[in-house]
Design goal:
Low-confidence stretches: none
Shape: globular
Number of strands: 7
Order of helices and strands: EEHEEEEEHHHHHHHHHHHH
Radius of gyration: 25 Å
Distance between the termini: 56 Å
Strand order of the largest sheet: 2-1-5-3-4
CATH class of the largest domain: Mainly Alpha
CATH topology of the largest domain: Fumarate Reductase Iron-sulfur Protein, Chain B, domain 2
CATH architecture of the largest domain: Orthogonal Bundle
Helix content: 40-55%
Mean pLDDT: 88
CATH superfamily of the largest domain: Alpha-helical ferredoxin
Strand content: 5-15%
Structural class: alpha+beta
Number of domains: 3
Length: 337
């Protein structure tokens, strides 16, 4: 069947343009196979990265119909819209574009410098201090090693980084790939720098608190690493080791949970005073709340009383059950490590 491949092309620091290539392709063909055919038979100047062609190296990540994916993994049929009777004679289209959040060098090839630089910021290697044991290996139990299996599947393709909303609006955010790798080190019982790592990962919005929880990284990861889940686990580790005076992001999370346990939903009056005003300790924060409070009062958005949810007891029970389950899981991991 004939398909129009609309490829977003550009040179470095130049405007992008779309070039259309018509190709006779089968639904079972991979996108990479089609790009190879275009390059070999129609346009040798088309630039894109590739290597293993077997979902191992991660080189061929690109935007396919608006979703970042591996061109060697996805086939043509997955991106063809169902045929419409009134447009039976029309030729289906597939749009190919470079990954997001990274500048294009040429066509589908992007500059991944920021991707690799942000990875280095989380120190993605096991601390050598933990290996100071004489004349034997640092052995792990099968249970302890199993904690690393999922994150170990990451092939650094850049798909999660490409789709990350937080990276798009906050260049300081290290990205889901780096935080997933950071969790791999936090979960490794051979590492000796866990406390230092967690302290670094909780700083401002560069670390875990910069994540917007959009879950796009989980959706596009071709290896099932689920970076968003790993970010959540790092947050849990940080919260379990620090009190609400450590920083505003930590206080935000802890106060949110406490207020929901108290009333079934968030009492926004207490929320602002406890988080921003730090329980009346932060006078500058309290003063900053003034203009917002006045606007809310003027528009009738600031209730004088708070009515707890009818299901408060059930909500509290659910939160406590989850917290107990997490505690049991952590203790089991410690015992087997």
């Amino acid at each position: 069947m004939e398909i129009n491949f609309k490829v977003v092309r550009s040179e470095q620091n130049s405007n992008r343009r779309i070039q259309t290539y018509r190709l006779d392709a089968e639904p079972s063909q991979t996108i990479l196979s089609c790009l190879n055919q275009i390059k070999w038979t129609q346009d040798g100047t088309l630039a894109f990265r590739k290597n293993c062609r077997n979902t191992i190296c991660g080189s061929c990540a690109m935007g396919i119909n608006g979703i970042t994916a591996l061109a060697c993994k996805e086939n043509v049929g997955s991106f063809l819209a169902p045929s419409v009777p009134d447009s039976a004679d029309s030729i289906p289209e597939i749009t190919i574009a470079p990954m997001g959040n990274m500048p294009a060098i040429k066509d589908l090839v992007v500059d991944m410098s920021s991707f690799w630089d942000n990875l280095q910021k989380v120190d993605p290697y096991v601390s050598t201090k933990a290996r100071d044991l004489p004349e034997r290996e640092f052995l792990q139990t099968p249970q302890a090693r199993a904690q690393l299996d999922q994150t170990g599947n990451c092939i650094m393709c850049g798909a999660c980084y490409s789709e990350c909303n937080a990276v798009e609006v906050n260049p300081e955010f290290v990205g889901p790939h780096a935080l997933a790798k950071a969790y791999r080190m936090v979960a490794d019982n051979r590492d000796a720098d866990t406390e230092q790592r967690l302290s670094k990962l909780t700083q401002t919005t560069q670390g875990v608190w910069g994540c917007t929880r959009c879950y796009y990284c989980n959706n596009v990861c071709p290896m099932g690493v689920t970076p968003m889940d790993k970010i959540g686990k790092i947050k849990s580790e940080i919260l379990s080791r620090t009190d609400d005076q450590a920083s505003r992001p930590i206080r935000h999370r802890k106060v949110l949970i406490d207020l929901v346990k108290e009333g079934g939903w968030v009492d926004e009056r207490k929320f602002g005073l406890r988080v921003v005003g730090n329980y009346f300790r932060d006078m500058q924060g309290l003063i900053g709340l003034g203009p917002l409070g006045l606007r809310m009062l003027a528009r009738g958005k600031f209730p004088l009383s708070f009515e707890p949810s009818l299901g408060t007891a059930q909500v509290r029970s659910l939160i406590e059950s989850v917290q107990n389950l997490e505690s049991q899981t952590e203790n089991a991991g410690t015992d087997t490590g």
